[in-house]
Design brief:
Number of helices: 1
Radius of gyration: 27 Å
Largest sheet: none
Number of strands: 0
Structural class: mainly alpha
């Protein structure tokens, strides 16, 4: 049977730490993708609002 040495435990600890760091990076990358999607959606909404705001400033589309 293989003996478990200090080197084995150090390697195991190092591997777990690296795995945890990769997991954190993956989580942050996923959050960035979600935020990018939200920003793009907000930009589209803002652009539409600005277009309609211009129409109201020129007196178009007044429903009074």
């Amino acid at each position: 049977m293989t003996q478990l040495t200090d080197e084995h435990f150090e390697l195991h600890t190092k591997n777990k730490a690296e795995q945890y760091e990769r997991q954190k990076i993956k989580f942050l990358e996923d959050r960035i993708k979600v935020l990018e999607t939200a920003i793009a959606s907000h930009a589209k909404i803002l652009a539409r609002f600005q277009m309609t705001e211009g129409e109201y400033d020129r007196g178009e589309n007044n429903h009074e």
